């Protein structure tokens, strides 16, 4: 009786830094890069013990970790050094949530299921990690086809930094898609479904309607797990998109989780989780996805990634030291974010009202650089669409400008010079609507929005600039149940 759940990675298109504070919004796109959690019993028979066995496998990292978990207070014991706090808290909090929400009759069934032990296998799509080194070592070109040639769930390379081979850690060079949030959400979702707490939507099915309260429960446990595992209460947009898919997001009040952080030291875990589930979660979520015939594409420049917490810390320090200037920059950035969102919403509306005109304009613009778009159309309906496209582009240029100003003032590389050069080249390519550094910025993969069939164009340009176009695309679906182990596909 295996249960397989998956959750997507994300790209925060607008709202970097601002999304940390209410009521600022961020537009977050979920992707086709997914983390999978495969759950099944360890033993065929029920073993009546107070401490149950939990085994966690991470084949890509060649890790297997064995735990003993107390069904009395949900303590996890482990003798291994290779521990993953995100998975550990996911197990503890999901089991505590099951005991908190299920009635006595279902609890007996739950106890029997847990007494068989739990086997968890975690798999992440290749897109979460950087495989540039392997591609270059094989002498292959920096193109998506080289990535596609890698086996699914390829092993992550170990670095040679440690002289003692036994203690070396995998070198986890990432692309910035929110691997910890996607992994945490997949494990929580699989556990809650496996234990009979929720009934999640199957892959490819609509996530609205009767499953919304189940998704909300997954969201609450995954957010709590993720925040406590990383030791801070972040904005939560990454977990929110892993659960719900693409949307416009405004954060929850941090006190919901900070109260749980304090309570876990003195209060039984099932009571703490009970309070988390009863709390007033005041985040806002509005449906959003890219307009038709627009594609999300990511390019990995091979600069080594970025530490988001240290970047956020520097921006907060700047805010305290120069509140007036920082507020002015944030207000302008917020205006530009809202303008981009408005232009995208208008383009979706125009596509719905007059599809033929919309498709004709997008297809034509996809073959030309942006400076030529305006002069190509005279019909009023066509001109309106072009105006909205150029408005979105202008809003993105303003976002980039304000993000650079914030980085310079805070002394951090939000849009470093190397990324600026790359983004300028990108935005000057035929069929590219806009480009930027996602989320907190830095040296992670950049994103671009291309029109119609122009993506191949950009892929070639990027390859000539030593940038690897990833296989990632927008997929608006959030967490879901899978029909089987993804390795068997």
Write up what this structure looks like.
By secondary structure, this protein is an alpha+beta fold. The chain is built from 15 helices and 13 strands. The strands form two sheets. Strands 1, 2, 3, 4, 5, 6, 7, 8 and 13 form a nine-stranded mixed β-sheet that branches. It has a four-stranded antiparallel β-sheet with strand order 10-11-9-12. α1 packs across α6 (212-230), α8 (255-263) runs antiparallel to α9 (269-278) and α11 (323-353) runs antiparallel to α13 (380-410). Residues 159-170 have low confidence and may be disordered.
> Nearest-angstrom radius of gyration?
23 Å
Measured by DSSP, the beta-strand proportion falls in 15-25%
Find the count of extended strands (DSSP E, 2+ residues).
13
Per DSSP, the total helix count is 15
- The mean pLDDT is 92
What is the rounded distance between the termini?
A: 18 Å
SSE ordering: EEEEEHHEHHHHHEHHEEHHHHHEEHEE
Structural class: alpha+beta
| Unreliable parts | 159-170
Q: Summarize the biggest pleated sheet.
A: 9 strands, mixed
Shape: globular
Helix content: 40-55%
